[in-house]
Amino acid sequence: MVLSTVGVIGGGQLARMMIPPAVELGITIKVLEEAPGMSAELAATGVGDYRDLETVIAFAETVDVVTFDHEHVPPAILRELVARGIPVRPGPDALLFAQDKLHMRAKLTELGLPVPDWAAIESADELAEFLETHGGRAVVKTARGGYDGKGVRVVSEPHSVDDWFLALAEDGRGGALLVEELVSFRRELAQLVARRPSGEVSAWPVVETVQRDGVCAEVIAPAPQSAGRIADLAADIATAVATGLGVTGVLAVELFETTDGRLLVNELAMRPHNSGHWSIEGSTTSQFEQHLRAVLDLPLGATGSRDVWSVMVNILGGPADGTLQDRYPAALAAHPMVKIHGYGKEPRPGRKVGHVTASGDDLDEVAYQARSAAAFFEG
Ligand code: ADP
Q: Does 330 lie in the same domain as 310?
C-alpha cells in the first residue's frame, strides 16, 4: 500500500515547514497542535495533549503514518500506536535515544561511535570523582527535558548540581545525570541525513552551526574547510547512527570538531532540525520534503547544494514592538535576494520566530546579506 497521509504530532515551526512540500507533492498533512493558533495551524485538524493516549490514538487513526515536530511524546503512547498497527516514524525504540541523553551516550558507545568521555552519576561524590579524573572541570546534563542549553551546566565544584539531584529524587523516578568531559572544540558542526524504513540513507553536506547563549544563531552550509576528510567522516558517523539506531525520517547529528581534529557526537534530533533550514532554498531536496519522503517510504531526493554557499540566520525574539510583518517592507526592499521565513509566532525575547537564508558564490557576501536582513527584525 502506498501511504499518502502524514500526521504530525506538534504544531511548531518544524511542522509548519513540512506543509509546503506536502502541498507540492500532493500529500495530505494533518497536525495535532498542543494549543490553538500555533505555527502549523494551517494544517491542524485539532488541538490536543500529546501526553494523552486517547487523544493521540484518535488523531493517529485519521492518518497513514505518524511523525513528529518534537521528541516529547511518551514512549508508552508510541508503543500503543505500534501495537495497533499504526506506522510511527521514527519508531519508539529509536526515539528513546533522542529523548534520553544517557541512553544515547550508552548506545553510541556500544556502537563504537566517537563521543566525549562520559559517565552516569547519582551523587556529588560521583561528580567529584569524575572531576578529579578530568582536569577539574566537566559538563553536567539532565538526561531528559533539556533544550537550547537549558539542562546543561559547566561545573568545577561537586555540589553545583545538587538541585538537579534533589529534583530527580523528589520526582520519585530517581535516575542519574550525565556528566562528560568539557570538550575543547574548534567549532560545532551538524550532519543531517534521512533514512527510509527500507534502509536507504541520504546525507546533506555537513554544516557549521554557530551558537549564542546555547541557542543556534547561524548556520553555514557547507561548513567552511570541510571538504574531504571532515565531510566524509561526518557523513559516515551520521549514517552509522541512523542505521545503528534504526532511525526513520530526518536525523540531525550535532558534532564537535575538536581542536585536535576529531569529530565527537554531542546531540541527536530525530526530525527536521534548525541546522537544516538552509536546505529549503539551498539544496535540491529540503529537509522537510525529505522527511515526508522518508516517513512515507518513498525514494529519497538528491541532497546536493544549489549554490556554493548558503547562510541561515535565525530571527531570535523579533521586534520589541509590533510584528515581523511590520518590518517586511524595509527588509524585503533592502534584500531582494534573501529568503525570509516567518513562523507566525508572537515576538518574545529569545524565541525563534523566523529565519532568513541567503545563497551565492561568495561566502562573505552571502553571510553579510543574511545577517543584515535578519537585523531588520531585531529590537
Ligand atoms: P541542548 O540539548 O540543550 O541543546 P546540548 O547538549 O546540545 O544541549 O548542549 C548545548 C551547548 O553546550 C552545545 O551546543 C555546546 O556549545 C555546549 N556543550 C555541550 N556539551 C559540551 C561538552 N561536553 N563540552 C563542551 N561544550 C559542550
A: yes
